[in-house]
Amino acid sequence: MATIVDRQNPFKTSLSTKFLWLGLFVYLAYAFSTLDIGWERFMLGLDQGGRLIDRLFPPNFTRWELLLSDLIESLQIAIIASVAGILISLFVGLMAARNMMPNVISIPVRVFIALCRTFHPVIIAILFVKAVGFGALAGILTLTVASIGFVAKLFAEAIEEISFKQVEAIRATGAGFISTILFGVIPQVFSRFIGFSIYQLDSNLRNSTMVGIVGAGGLGGTLFSAFQRFDYDFVTAILLAIIALILVGEALSNLVRRIFQ
Amino acid sequence: MSRLEIRDLNHAYVSNKPILKNINIDINEAGVIAIIGPSGTGKSTLLRCINRLIQPTDGSIIFKNKDVAKIKGKSLREVRRQIGMVFQEYNLVERLSVLENVLTGRLGYMSAWSAWRRNFTDKDIQRAFELLEFVGLSDFAMQRADSLSGGQRQRVGIARALMQEPAILLADEPTSSLDPKTSVEIMELLTQLAQDKGIPTLVNIHDVNLAKRYAQRMIGMSGGEVVYDGKPDGITDTHLKTIYGGESWLQ
Amino acid sequence: MKADALMTPVSNPAESPKWQRFTLGQRSARYMVYLIIVMSFFASLRTVEIIPEFLLDAPEQLADMFRRMWPMDFAAYPTTIHGAMLDTLHIATLGTLLSLILAMPLALMNANNIVKSSWVNWIAKFFLVASRSVNSLIWALLFVAIFGPGVLAGVLAVALRSVGFVGKLFSEALEEVNMGSVEAIRATGASFASVLIKAYWPQAKPAFFSILLFRWDINVRESAVLGLVGAGGIGVVLNDAMNLFQWPKVAMVLTTIFVVVLLIEFIVVQVRKRLM
Q1: For residue C149, what is the nearest residue in chain A, using CA coordinates?
Q2: Which terminal residue of chain C has fewer beta carbons within 10 Å of its beta carbon, N or C?
Q3: Over the stretch B171-211, which tens digit does the pLDDT of each residue have?
Q4: Residue C6 covered by a domain
Q5: Taking 60 as the threshold, does the pLDDT of residue C220 lie above it?
Q6: According to the model, what pLDDT value does residue C151 have?
Q7: DSSP category for residue C200
């Protein structure tokens, strides 16, 4: 068999790259033809944007009491949902781990987790608002579900990666199922679980300021109505409050992460 | 009535490919009983059948008037807690401290609720410290298990097994992951406690010389069957050839 | 055999103090964290304004809602849902592409092995963090206020939200590049642009596509809800159907979103497998 010496310029753009570019341009042309995005609209918007920015400043804190009570409600939603969601995730995650549970349990639990994950929190919030009415309760339920979708999934994966030898050794001492979990499984996954939980607490804090847009309590509701009433200087005040909340949350979670390292 | 009677024990992971064939063993005496044989001959499976980490296909294992092969749930756990086990790769819970690892030997005696609260009795804690002293690791009690060397970990593994106050001890290749000097130390430790505490100790081992040096009885296995059972000095090159096959390694 | 004969010297005395499990300080810090969490949990529970009866009622209300959703309004799919779903996919895709254009310079500026000036690094970092801190729905609200309701606001919201994510991850990928080969190319006298294209890019390319796909997947989920604040796509249809209490149509919309999200996730997983 003769060896074919291929001496192409190695830096030449390959055929697949060319196709990628071609595909990109065809897609862009198609997308812009179907969508209602026009240049003049964009320019008009920029003009509008300039005026908007004028109206955003200075931020208006005169309704600080409303702002504060909303901020506290967001915080309450985030805390309750995180604690509830993380506690539930401990059990749900364990039940979803294929190396600890038989398929009859793990498969339905995995489907449940996937359902919790697939929908955006806002959509879940809409459903809960319809079910339990406007207010913080819908927000709490929403973020609890979202927490389960994230923490339980990662926790189950962490359990599936543990060393089973350590579990076997604890089993050999005559320990029961729960004791085996406590001493053979939990020590191996605890620090990762803490990591997921802190991440979720942070993310719940962010989302608790948003679920209000569909009526599930917290700052979001006030923000949405401020937008609708063109109350832009109050919008800025709310946005600043949200950013402050997120920054404080981030600082706290960094602190907790350091403590648990 | 022996302390442990294994009768007609068979095991197959895949049907028609038996890994244990009609094993019959009586364990009565304290001291080290070495089980020798090549890898894959079912030594580990045999030990794991005794404390039912593996469910044998059929046969019986009589321990304290109970057939271990048939019981389950609470009575199985009560049997397991009286059978200590030492593992080839130590199998310590790496993120727990040395002391906590030793204390896990008491889990079979505690309710899940006490285990959750880590509510070990003062007596247990006292005993754990004594055992650590016995294996020479008092200074390491509060360190995490994954900071220890192999030989130290194995000694923690032995202390954990002793914590169960076992009537019998199983050691699955306890020296295979260790260097020769440490291996000797571990074998000496096992022999010492088998004699001092009067615990029959079944040790899987593939190093024949080490086995001969410490065991008072040797069981040779080949192809899932017991082919020799008797005094160490009764074992001849002919026996070893049946057990391991070939002979070039004997020179 | 004596116990002390078993004592082998500690293998690494310098290292062993590190493993002292927890100092008293660490332990109490942990307990403080637990205590604060428990306290704030119960404080929140006591003060939050919820009506317990509503919670007890929730399962029944949910069941009632699902009953009203069935049978789904399949007829609505071809008339309104299909087009709106395509809009949503366009929002996600165009938003991701636009975010790339914005994120690239920021990622380069943020990578401290490309731009050595810490000043520039900090400026880039500021924009990346700002982009990530503001939720896409809030971006959408802003852009709806500026450009009016519609797809344009959605695309911009997705893009601005994704810049921080894509930029941060891509600059991390650039920072992990093996500097040896970069220096080798620089040593040939290549210009800055050539070094970027021939030294950094080939090494960061797999990470780049992987980040892009990952964000696209997230953006499809996010753009499905942007319509609730008027930023186009399937969310608009969902919002209208809910305001008119057309539950069978709501169910059809949710099912469509569910299927599309699963499909996109499947595609992304498959493509990533090929890329890796």
Answers
A1: A36
A2: C
A3: 999 988 888 888 999 999 999 888 888 899 999 988 888 88
A4: no
A5: yes
A6: 87
A7: I
Q: Does any domain span residue C215?
A: yes
Whole-angstrom Cα distance, residue B106 to residue B120?
8
Give strand pairing partners of B5: B26, B62
Q: How many CB atoms lie within 10 A of CB C38?
A: 11
The position carrying tokens 């009859």 is: A104
Helix (H) or strand (E) holding B158: helix B150-163
Domain that holds residue C175: 75-275
Pairing of strands B31-36, B83-86: unpaired
Of B97, B151, B152, the CB nearest to C21: B97
Count of structural domains within chain C: 2
Q: Where are the domains of chain B?
A: 88-165
- Which chains form contacts with chain C, at 3 or more CB pairs under 8 Å? A, B
Nearest to C30 among A118, A126, A260 (CB): A260
* CB interface of B with A, residues 77-106, below 8 Å: 77-83, 85, 87, 89, 91-96, 100, 104-106
Is residue B24 predicted with pLDDT exceeding 70? yes
CATH for the stretch A64-259: 1.10.3720.10
Q: pLDDT digit string (tens) for C118-170?
A: 888 888 888 888 888 788 888 898 888 888 888 888 999 999 999 988 998 88
d(CA A182, CA A33): 60
Residues C82 and C151 in one domain: yes
Strand partners, B67: B62
Above 50 in pLDDT, residue C9?
Answer: no
Residue C5 lies in a domain: no
Q: Which pLDDT belongs to residue A90?
A: 92
Of C3, C7, C16, the CB nearest to B147: C16
- What does the pLDDT read at residue C11? 39
**Structure confidence at residue A251 (pLDDT):** 85
Based on the domain organization, do C25 and C156 belong to the same domain? no
Residue C137 falls inside a structural domain: yes
Please name which of C247, C31, C151 lies closest in space to residue A32, comparing C-alpha atoms: C151
Average pLDDT, chain C: 81
CB contact under 8 A, C152 and A36: yes
